[in-house]
Amino acid sequence: MKKILVTGGAGYIGSHTVVELFNTGYEVIIVDDFSNSDPKMLDQIEKISGKKPEFVKLDLCDEQAVHAFANQHKNISGIIHFAAFKAVGESVQQPLKYYRNNFYSLINIITAFNSKVKLVFSSSCTVYGQPDKLPVTESAPVKKAESPYGNTKQIAEEILEETCAVTPDLRVIALRYFNPVGAHASALIGELPIGVPQNLVPFITQSAIGKRGAITVYGDDYNTPDGSAIRDYIHVVDLAKAHVAAIKRLEAETGDNYEIFNIGTGKGSSVLEIINAFEQSTGEKLNYAIGARREGDIEQTYGDVSHSNTVLGWKAELGINEMMSSAWNWEKYLRDNPF
Fold first, then answer.
1. Which domains can be identified in the chain, with CATH numbers?
2. Can you say how many angstroms the Cα of residue 311 is from the centroid of all Cα atoms in its chain?
């Protein structure tokens, strides 16, 4: 049975991916330092899958510790690398924190495993900025990043592409996610924002359950059908399955040794459409107000996912109603079973 290392595997996307790896028959070892996750998620994964993932607490920026880990775990056949800081606002305030963590961890992993590794890298649609054309394809130009966080994703992709160019044994797939939302159908795992949520959907669910006040819709004067900003929202379970598809493609050793795929639904939804879908799918009424545009927000973005559909053999299956209802079920679970 093949063993996959999942860094940041106790986090939001990581925990869902571990469940899907178990469902597909892989063994899993998680590395996490819980800087942006909760140890209880390991128990929640076991409740869903019936399997407890092997776990090592480790700071991936510690070069010696990562090399020692790699020497002790020579049976790892693939790596899915989630572990990174990801709060855009914080990255603007503390750029060095982001550059240190997001680069050192990646470089340490590649060097520790002697570059003979199959790696799925967690990238982001932030590399596109405000695209010139929609839907945005993988060949679209990478724009100057709006934040140090976004810049770490761009530079990490460059590090990987340039290393693959001179390291034939290294095989990498970078997945450029759009906006992951929702939770597992069991409602046992989901997004656990620290402090006030920076993303729309967890703010919606926290507002609906009474943890937060009214929702602010930042701008209703964009050049979109209802004036609110548009994003490509993808269910986190679909996103998790994309990582399993990427590992399988790397194992097959087809295609180039560095590839990029957009991971989204290929369809944009506006902020007001998301609010309406939440109300429709849960029966909960939301309290929201229109505010001014936020600095740095882009008007609209959604991906062309035909490359993922045809080459990766993956397709998003869950719609916006499943995204909203599962996110709400998770919020209610947290209310009744606080972490």
1. 3-182+232-264+303-317 (3.40.50.720)
2. 20
Task: Just list the catalytic residues.
Answer: 149
Residue (of 1, 68, 8) closest to 192 by Cα position:
8
Peptide bond into 225 cis (omega under 30): no
Query: Tokens in use for 41?
Result: 């998620």
Q: Which residues are registered as beta bridge partners of 7?
A: 31, 81
Identify the bridge partners of residue 235 per DSSP, sorted by sequence position: 181
- Can you tell me whether residue 187 is helix, strand or coil? coil
Nearest to 173 by CA among 111, 117, 233: 117
pLDDT tens sequence across 235-278: 999 999 999 999 999 999 999 999 999 999 999 999 999 999 99
Task: Collect all residues with Cβ–Cβ distance below 8 Å to 252 and sequence separation of at least 6.
Answer: none
What is the radius of gyration, based on Cα positions, of the chain? 19
Q: Which DSSP helix (H) or strand (E) runs through 306? A: helix 306-307
